[in-house]
Amino acid sequence: MGAMGGISEMPQVTEGPGTADSEALATLHRVFGYEAFRGEQEEIIEHVVAGGDALVLMPTGGGKSLCYQIPALVRAGTGVVISPLIALMQDQVDALRALGVRAGFVNSTQDFDERRLVEAEFLAGELDLLYLAPERLRLDTTLDLLSRGKISVFAIDEAHCVSQWGHDFRPDYLALSLLGERWPDVPRIALTATATRATHQEITQRLNLPTARHFVASFDRPNIQYRIVPKADPKKQLLAFLREEHAGDAGIVYCLSRNSVERTAEFLTANGIEAVPYHAGLDARVRAAHQSRFLREEGLVVVATIAFGMGIDKPDVRFVAHLDLPKSIEGYYQETGRAGRDGLASTAWMAYGLNDVIQQRKLIQSGEGDEAFRRRAAAHVDAMLALCETAQCRRGQLLVYFDQAPDAAGCGNCDTCLTPPETWDGTIAAQKALSTVVRLQRERGQKFGAVQIVDILLGKRTGKVIQFDHDQLSVFGIGTDLTETEWRGVIRQLLAQGLLAVEGEYGTLALTEASGTVLRREREVPLRKEPKKPAAARTRSGGSGGGKAKAAAAELPDELLPAFEALRAWRAEQAREQGVPPYIIFNDATLRGIVTLKPASVGDLGTVSGVGEKKLAMYGEGVLTVLASLGGPAPAAGDSQDADWPEPDEEPEPDEWI
Ligand code: ADP
Ligand code: ZN
């Protein structure tokens, strides 16, 4: 299609031994302990190792990091990673060091001596990877440092930060175009999980990457279950969702305002779910502490504004919940994408209601920016609303938004696929609602918000109805066939379909050009039925019952749970001793691999995905000892792989945190 210009779309992976069937693959096995490359990884790596520039668009959890880490390991010199995530650099470097990779970072959190040490390592050629914040490239001292060392590749992470339209714009990213001018022979790879064509083209232009090869991965995240429920009592709905489906799990809850962030975190804590707030209004130290806890503890919930989350590579975030409507599908997709990086089942859950629609439309109208800006913002909200109101597969709608082909039969893992919504002919209801708006305006010259419209339809003699004599209108009480919730659903859907508009600072309702076609009976208005009991949660196979790691472990057969829990307890102890997040030791997916294989020897253990050379050397014996203590095969035995593992006498000690 035209808009992509000369971009080569997702070339097929070539079969057979290529050049990468060599050092790159050997590095993947040895350092990372992974069996095979995923998707486009191999081709991207081959291209960059050969010196080519690349733009990589891959969803969160798709495996972007390897695309620059392996070239940095294979090519001579140090890979320089530009990342805006200063607060996460330490963890990123720790994770690499745990794999035996020589990594370091330079940023403003370091003191002089620490920085000098890293710089010396870089100059001595002793670093495989060096992480830098973009603002450092404005400093001549940094450019001078870089020009005195040998650079294998520049990786520009979170490359969408260069986009002025995006929500993560960082002015310092604009200066990154100089990298190509100063180091024309060093390949550059820009990576992002933001997928629209507009952002895509902006990155190419602003980073000056005209000849970069574009790699566009599938944006599908099949392990994430997408669900959008009508909002009734959002905090209670959230609580029920967490209790029934995600007890003991780590997750993120997004709210629009700082105030609701604070209140929601307090509410969850008061109800026995450990939650901490995160927003830009908190002291930087408090924010850093909360982020650090989220990464290091296993079952913490962070309630946050969108200030939280970019670059958080915690693999075991089991759910992302939205209590307010995000401003765009891009934002929603980025945020929900933080769930389930480890590929295990996760949920993206959102509660959404009439007030969200009104609120967002009002924000745009009363917000800053010129007409073009508003139109763009309105189009983003409209796309988001269409996703909320669709009776089709949610995943399909998301993929289409990102110009990718959905599965025609539906995904089978979103709410509309799992429980297809009923629709009903809402034409008459729509006419009643629109007529009420018309009467108020024509007969009284008045405009009112949704609450008053619904009260009039229901024939309620509220104070405000009596005050304005609205019980004298001919439409008063014409809507007693529907409940208040149903009427709010009708109005919400009329807004989403563009058959009603929101105006002014009070969010009053007004007709649109399209309203006439409904009033003149020129079209029908199909509507989604409001579920009788909103947010009735379906539990997954795990059934009820709380406890740590229930959901993460839910896909394991019961008899393997004791081993899984024992390994988690062992991991927590290792993490605490080293002061690193537990997933840096081994992530959940790797622990699951271990308990499923039941390795009886260090050699067996090394075949598990995620167990590389360094980790095998460091933890091999420890893991086998834990397994043996459960009554399974002793490390030395080696011949009784299929022995049953009896239940331990007691539950393992509950994990203890910081
Ligand atoms: P992204 O940066 O795109 O969000 P990551 O690079 O963090 O994704 O990768 C997500 C997860 O998948 C990580 O736990 C990573 O180690 C793992 N992973 C990446 N590539 C592979 C692979 N080829 N085989 C197995 N696991 C992989
Ligand atoms: Zn679906």
Number of strands: 17
Number of domains: 4
* SS content category: alpha/beta
CA radius of gyration: 27 Å
What is the average of the pLDDT values? 86
Ranges with pLDDT <50 over ≥5 residues?
1-20, 534-551, 633-658
For this structure, what is the CATH class of the largest domain?
Alpha Beta
Q: Which second-level CATH architecture of the largest domain applies?
A: 3-Layer(aba) Sandwich
Strand percentage lies at 5-15%
What's a quick, concise take on this entry?
The protein has 658 residues and is of the alpha/beta class. The protein has 27 helices and 17 strands. The N terminus and C terminus are likely disordered.
Characterization of this structure:
This protein has 658 residues and is α/β, with parallel strands linked by helices. It has four domains: 22-216, P-loop containing nucleotide triphosphate hydrolases (Rossmann fold); 224-418, 3-Layer(aba) Sandwich (Rossmann fold); 424-528, Arc Repressor Mutant, subunit A; 556-629, HRDC domain (DNA polymerase, domain 1, Orthogonal Bundle), CATH 1.10.150. Helix content is 42%, strand content 12%. A hairpin with a 4-residue loop joins strand 15 and strand 16 (508-511). The longest helix is centred in the middle third of the chain and has 19 residues, at 371-389. The site of adenosine-5'-diphosphate has 18 residues, from helix 3. Zinc ion (ZN) binds next to helix 15 and helix 16.
Which features characterize this protein?
six-stranded parallel beta sheet; 4 domains; binds zinc ion; 12% strand; 27 helices; alpha/beta; Arc Repressor Mutant, subunit A; disordered C terminus; Rossmann fold; binds adenosine-5'-diphosphate; 658 residues; disordered N terminus; globular
